[in-house]
Amino acid sequence: MQDLKSILTRHGFHFKKQFGQNFISDTNLLESIVAASGIDENTTVVEIGCGAGTLTRALAEKAKKVYAYDVDTALQPVLAETLAGLDNVEVIFRDFTKVNLPQLDEEIGEFTVVANLPYYITTPLITKLLEESEKVQGISVMVQEEVAERFCAKENTAEYGSITAAIALKGEAKIVKRVSRNLFYPRPNVDSAVVKITFDRGRVAVKSEKAYRLAVKCAFLNRRKTLENNLVNFFKLTREQAKQVLSTAGIDEKARGETLSPQRLAVLADALLDAGIL
Asked: Are strands 136-144 and 192-199 parallel, antiparallel or unpaired?
């Protein structure tokens, strides 16, 4: 920890709360994140929020190429030191949430995301990767522990929600390591966990991904309301139309969104398509 602190101090670096900066220096933790990601010398890695470059260096020692993104240009002299001697790392000072992913797919081909994600962009970033990239092969990210629980939740639990269902369409999420807040600098107020999303496109059979995403949004529109009510409100259906869609899908009209597995949500999406609603 002292080495990282010394480097940051020497370069006059100041943490910025708006970027959610919490850096890792524990060597064992860095190595375990890299190992859990399953990357090797043939893997192209995209790292989002590279911070002081400690994870970046650990990734570069295993991967073919690392594209390391960060928004804070004040880290430039820090990264010049921590990544010195590496010829397979490209640091890009850009907000990854604004990156054109189809264009990135075309430029770098298949890639794996490995990152200690800034907490404030976690869900929108995962959503962007799921919806916009055809080349991402896997995602291994450090996230807030309660967010990790949501990513991996099962139906009929309080943690299960729209992001769970979105992930389940493309792959399987699993918590591979729980991480104490004491291993970060500066120390955050919450514990973290490393989640690995293994992609398996087509694991949930659905006629249209767009229809599935809309069905998910509808199902979780209001968790306290029934699916029937959410269908009426979200798609502006009559009550009879909503009842018919649920009947076609074989879903109880009094059911709530969080009771439907991703597979059942896919059936609902297909029923909406077949009814001409989507």
From this structure: antiparallel
Q: Amino acid identity, residue 269?
A: A
CATH class for the region spanning 2-199: alpha beta
Q: Is 107 exposed, middle or buried (0-12, 13-18, 19+ CB in 10 A)?
A: exposed
- Of 110, 138, 133, nearest to 38 by C-alpha is 138
Q: 36 to each of 99, 141, 196, how far by Cα in Å?
A: 26, 10, 8
The CATH code of the domain at 209-274 is: 1.10.8.100
d(CA 2, CA 230): 53
The domain ranges of the chain are 2-199, 209-274
Residue 169 buriedness (CB in 10 A; 0-12 / 13-18 / 19+):
buried
Q: Using CA atoms, how far apart are residues 24 and 3, in angstroms rounded to an integer?
A: 12
Q: Are 148 and 195 in contact (CB under 8 A)?
A: yes
Strands 136-144 and 65-70: unpaired
- For residue 1, name the pLDDT band (cuts at 50, 70, 90): very low
Are the C-beta atoms of residues 214 and 269 closer than 8 Å to each other?
yes
Any idea what the Cα angle at residue 204 is, between residues 120 and 209, rounded to 5°?
Answer: 65
Paired tokens of 223: 């968790």
**CA 160: distance to chain centroid?**
15
Model confidence pLDDT, tens digit, residues 236-271: 999 999 999 999 999 998 999 999 999 999 999 999
Share of the chain above pLDDT 90, in %: 83
Residue found under tokens 């306290």: 224
- For residue 186, pLDDT beyond 90: no
